[in-house]
Amino acid sequence: GGAGFIAKNNASKWTLVMKRRSDLKPSYAVVEDAMFSAEETQAAANLHARGVPVYIIGFKRPITADAFPVTDEYARQYAANNPWARILVMDDERAYDSRTGAWVSASGN
Q1: Nearest-angstrom CA–CA distance, 24 and 66
Q2: pLDDT mean across residues, the chain
Q3: Quick one: the chain helix, strand, coil %, rounded to 5?
Q4: Quick one: pLDDT band at residue 2, thresholds 50, 70, 90?
Q5: Which of 45, 57, 49 has the alpha carbon at shortest distance from 11?
Q6: Taking residues 82-99, what's their average pLDDT?
Q7: Which helix (H) or strand (E) holds 89?
Q8: Fewer CB near the terminus (10 Å): N or C of the chain?
Q9: The predicted structure's pLDDT at residue 89
Q10: For 13-41, b where at least 16 C-beta lie within 10 A, e where not — what string?
Q11: Residue 22 and residue 15: Cα distance in Å, rounded?
Q12: Interacting residues of 51 by C-beta distance below 8 A, sequence separation 6+
């Protein structure tokens, strides 16, 4: 048994933690900044390679004005390029409610 924990963002830091302490493995990871960052996507892929399920979150309406909104088409393409990740696109980052979101796959399902 034992309580699990979640790796929230900072995927590269969590990979470093797991290298130093192999006994600390998150139950899953939630990464919000990966959809428009190759570096964050790679860090998330590294977590996945270590056996951590990874959820990539995108927002159709992000909080910050300089952030890119995620379109359905972009999310499908991202899912196709990163089949290891589970992609969730939410309507509004301010609400941060997965019930307003949709899981995305390369096929659009």
Answers
A1: 35
A2: 84
A3: 30, 25, 45
A4: very low
A5: 45
A6: 86
A7: strand 86-92
A8: N
A9: 93
A10: ebbeebeeeeeebbeebbbbbbbeeeebb
A11: 10
A12: 25
User: What CA–CA distance (Å, rounded) separates 81 from 21?
Assistant: 30
- What 3-state DSSP class applies to 31? strand
pLDDT digits (tens, 9 = 90+) for 35-65: 999 999 999 999 899 899 999 999 998 888 8
CB atoms within 10 A of CB 51: 9
Give the C-alpha separation, 99 to 19, whole Å.
34
Tell me how long the chain is. Answer: 109
Complete DSSP assignment for 39-76: HHHHHHHHHHHTT--EEEEEEEE-SSTTSPPPPHHHHH
Which residue is it, tokens 């302490």?
21
Q: In what order do the strands lie in the sheet with 6-8?
A: 6-8, 28-31, 54-61, 86-92, 102-104
54 touches 82 (CB < 8 A): no
